[in-house]
Amino acid sequence: MVLVLVVAWLPGLVFAQGFAGLGTTPGDFAVPSRDTVLTFPRDHGAHPDFRIEWWYLTANLTGPDGTPYGLQWTLFRSAMAPRDGQGWEAPQLWMGHAAVTTPEAHYVAERLARGGIGQAGVVADPFAAWIDEWSMQGDDPGALRLTAAGAEFAYDVGLVAQGPLVLHGDKGYSVKSAAGQASHYYSQPFYAVSGVLTLPEGDIPVTGTAWLDREWSSQPLAADQTGWDWFSLSFDTGEKLMGFVLRGAEDYTAATWIAADGAATALPDGAFVARPLAQNEVAGRVVPVTWQVAVPGRAVDVTVTALNPQAWMATSVPYWEGPVTIAGSHGGVGYLEMTGYE
Amino acid sequence: MTRTILSALFSHWWYNPLQVFTLLAGLALGTALWSGVQAINAEARASYDAAAATLGGGRYAQITAAEGAVSLDTYVALRRSGWNVSPVIEGRLGPVRIVGIEPLTAPGGIGPVSAAEGADLGVFLGGGQIFAKAETLTRLPDLGVTGVAAPDVAPNTAITDIGVAQRLLGRAGEIDRLLVGEAQPLRRGPLPDGLVQTAPQDGTDVARLTDSFHLNLTAFGLLSFAVGLFIVHGAIGLAFEQRRAIVRTVRALGAPLGQLIGLMAVELAMLGLVAGALGVALGYAIAAALLPDVAATLRGLYGADVAGQLSLRPAWWLSGMAIALGGTAVAASGALWSIARMPLLASAQPRAWGLARQGSALVWLSAALLGAAGGLALWGTGLVAGFAMLGALLVGGALALPGVLGLGLGWAGARARGPVPQWFWADSRAQVPGLSLALMALLLAMAANVGVSTMVSSFRLTFVAFLDQRLAAELYISASDRAQAARIVAVAEAEGAVVLPLLSVERAVAGLPAEVYGARDHATYRDNWRFLLGEPGAWDALARGEGVLVNEQLFRRAGLTLGDPVAVAAGVSLPVLAVYGDYGNPVGQVVVNDAVFRAAYPAVQALRFGLRVAPDGVPGVQAALRDRAGVADGAMVHQAAIKALSLSVFERTFTVTAALNVLTLAVAGFAILMSLLTLAAMRLPQLAPVWALGLTRRRLAVLDLVRALVLAALTGALALPLGLALAWALLAVVNVEAFGWRLPMYVFPLDYLRLGAFALLAAAGAAAWPAWRLSRIEPVRLLGVFRHER
Amino acid sequence: MLLHVRDVTKTYPGTEAAVLRGVSFDLGAGEMLALTGESGSGKSTLLHLIGGLDSADRGVVSVDGTDLTPLDDVGRAALRRGTVGVIFQQFNLIPSLTVAANIAFQARLAGRHDSARAQSLAARLGLAEHLHKYPEQLSGGQQQRVAIARTLAAQPKLVLADEPTGNLDETTADAVFQLLCDLVVETGAGLVLVTHSERLAARLGRRLHLRAGQVT
């Protein structure tokens, strides 16, 4: 019932009222600007004058027997008013999502918290992001310890960055629609991971790679945009690709080509192509879980396949999020996020 | 053409307003009875669902501070160590209970009002909304907060954000308790010192008994439905019989049969709608009049506020309309079918309203239904079978009525001396088909009354005995920990109380979830506990540690017999000495001797105690425990108060039951009145010759009145066994299926006599007016019979 | 030919003897026929067959060129309200409608109500001051006049009358009978009148006598 409450009641919360809710006008909130220069460590922290923000970490992991796993740790911030505060009256709300995906199972947990009382928050230096006992923290985002737990699973892993931060779009100013809606968006796609997953069958030591996305905005979508399909792909060559399709009256795409050394190139609308190849019924909906992804300018033409098609996030606002494998012109692994499938 | 036909159909009602009145009133009363009972039931259920949902109390484990309030820092620290807990603050603002919750962490089901109109979490969290029933909102002072009417919130309770509640109550930063969610993450830190966690309550024994109260009401709803259906059926059948002549004429003049039937169906649907609306309104009035008693009943049982006002719930008024329309449709389909098959040239005389022509089929159907009821009683399992048995019993009994009446009247007629008595019995017998539906309604009403009042009274006797058994000690005390338990024992003994430690562990017994209790050998138990089944000397054997007592639930579910060994602890198996009633308890229970228990479970220490104190010493002991052992008032239960409360609850239950009894009888009386009025016109050809032969109109009228009483008395004689069978079915079949325990049945002959007197009164009241009309009938109308007959 | 009856046979279920055995006759427009016979001779049954109130086992009944045999209830109902008008011995008025509404009833069903015609009929039949009364407030003769007015107001081509004066005293019966004949003549309809009165039968142009279900 509380979940129903949240969906029905949280106009400000991320994804609320369906993904189209992200197209509401910014009002008194700050608006991303092309002129903003991202500054670190300050911008690792929260931006309470923007309506929404997230710290979004996904990891592709492998167990000792070679079994692939996926891991997600997300902290969303949603503001009801463009200010911070102390006590119950603070207008900042927090939502945490954690998940572990195996080829056979998908474990999900969710947390909700008020700002202003210390139950959840983010500080930039030394870096700490937390909600309840879940946390992502370290002296700086280059070396983090990440923990979360649900009723059936838990994880505790270390992250060490192997490359630089990557700014998407125009130096971190990422346009989301032809009408100019935008966000501030940067990533750390070069984490090496090692740690332990605790699943019903026992503790599993894992290693792998992780990708952190940081994004904040006040009106990231145009009014007609209903959802997105977002890909973070790590190729065996060491190159990486971030690309998304925003579904609306006209689809809008944007992508970043990341060289093995971290050099980023923004790809314009249309340069990134993603086409569903196979649909699956997931949680009563039809969701595409196999995709053809192509960047003709970079000779990329690959098939992206979900490790577990049932990686449905049955949270307050449901969406699909799970690890994928890549085959075709390039091999590799990555993560796929699909929102707005009703 | 449609309009012309309709004009003929409708003109009948204008011309015979009494007939349309009886039709509408019959339908409306049947609907009212049903929807009234449903309204009470729905309201009561919704009220305590809301109460349970809002309070959250009991359903979740709770954490409180050993002293004072829980601080915000403690709450956040608990969350950050992995505890899925949610803060609650409560207090009173004038007459209204304010509950402050934190909606983002509240466990499922305690949040307010999922779908309240105008709910906006942003505003709620921002300190701007308070949820309550509309009538509660009017009792709140102006708080600078938007009130949102939310029918699901418990009565007299307002829910708001914890931040707002803290401000309104002037208790910034304080938290009364933390609700512990059912799902907890894998990793969780230890509970810090100074916090006390209490397990969820599975409902107290007393509270669980209210389920039976509801079953009672549900059964009454079913019975009133049956009575209502018979009345609706009768009213519709009547309306058709009276219009056969018109139908024939209109057809002869060229109206097609199909169109005529279609229009009559439409007409009936309209009447059904009107009557249904009237009935629902009437039912609402009935419910509104009775609800305060029901509300008080439930308030007594739950200690929580229950709405004393009705809200118009779509579920019940829709069901009321459905009954009116559905009943009309069922009744009309038969009548329309008969019209459709009526030959155009058949006699258009209205036939007696009834089932005479299907006499033998009726007997078979009745026998089949009664047989099915018997079969279900013997071999049926499950609640559905229980209710099916109830239905088969009722309908079968009702359908047997005409046959039984015919036999009884025939028997009397054969022994009658003199022409008038002979004519009286023969004529009475001839009336049975015409009156059968009304008499069936009377039969069902009486049987329902006998059944339900037997059930309620049996329930009360059992319950009182049970209270004596379970609440034998004057005071019940709960300790928060072992240290306090020791202090309690010391203080209580110093005050001269006898301390009965209540030792228990949960353990699977005979493969079923159960509790094992250790009982000290004390007169308290011997004097108050009653066995359903037991070996002589069971108490002595128990005291020697040579056996156990088990409750009825365990005894039935595990299929035990006396003397069977029961494993009460690892390596300890003792024979069953006796079985006791344990009404309301969902799980099995085993009582062993105190010494046996301590030997088997040395680690278990008593945290609950019964104290035997002289009744006037109770306040003194309570004060001493409060002052010297630090026992909170809420941890002390005064037995006399609970008993008084429980008994007053039953008094109110009786008020409701009695009111419904009178209502059903009144409705059945109305059905008789309608039938007699219909028969009055048809009977003139039978009465006229008797009148012509020398019986005065007055004498005829008196005989009619006597006939009504005789028929009612015979019906009552049949209703008594049917009602007792019904009570037996409710107590011994339905209750066992629903709750796993059987209520002993007691009979109350005086109540039945009074009920019989009421039924005769209803019949006499119904017959009075037709008889009066007969006594004043114009002789020319009686003469007309001879003139028209050729 | 307005009415054509050929070889009509009718047996009621449960009885051995046929009520009608091979009855045949014709009737032209404007013709008036008296149907006489003992009780049980089958004359009422014959009238019901012609009026579409019942159906023959064998033979042909055709009214105004329409064969009644294949008609279903809807077709028979259309015949009863449009082509044929039946006047019953028991009047069969609708007790809950006023005299005026009763007179207009069949014409309304047939969709040819003409209030001027209805009023003049009522006047001819001496009902003018009774129009707002209910049937039970009228005498038997008045009620039968209402029934006649009801039938004629619908302008049937064939009027069937089943002992229309059988419930009336002799003086009233004569007056009602004369009015019925006059009005039928004026409308040019055909008339089949069942009666057991030799006196009345003699006053019509044609006569058909039934004995044991056969024309004699």
Key phrases:
heterotrimer; B: 790 residues; alpha+beta; ten-stranded mixed beta sheet; 24 helices; 20 strands; C: 216 residues; alpha/beta; six-stranded mixed beta sheet; 7 helices; globular
What does it look like?
Chain A has one helix spanning 2-9, and strands at residues 52-62, 68-79, 92-101, 106-114, 120-123, 128-131, 134-137, 143-149, 154-161, 166-167, 173-175, 182-199, 202-217, 227-235, 240-247, 252-258, 264-267, 273-282, 285-295, 300-306, 312-313, 319-328, 332-338. With 342 residues, chain A is mainly beta. Chain A is globular. In chain A, 56% of the residues are buried. The model of chain A is unreliable at 1-21 (pLDDT under 50). Helices cover 62% and strands 13% of the residues of chain B. In chain B, α2 (17-55) runs antiparallel to α21 and α14 (419-470) packs antiparallel against α21. Chain B is built from 24 helices and 20 strands. By secondary structure, chain C is α/β, with parallel strands linked by helices. Chain C is built from seven helices and ten strands. Chain C has helices at 43-50, 73-82, 99-110, 115-124, 140-153, 170-187, 198-201; strands spanning 3-10, 20-27, 32-37, 58-63, 66-67, 84-87, 158-162, 190-194, 206-211, 214-215. In chain C, a hairpin with a 2-residue loop joins β9 (206-211) and β10. Chain C is globular. The mean pLDDT of chain C is 88. Classes of the chains: A mainly beta (342), B alpha+beta (790), C alpha/beta (216).
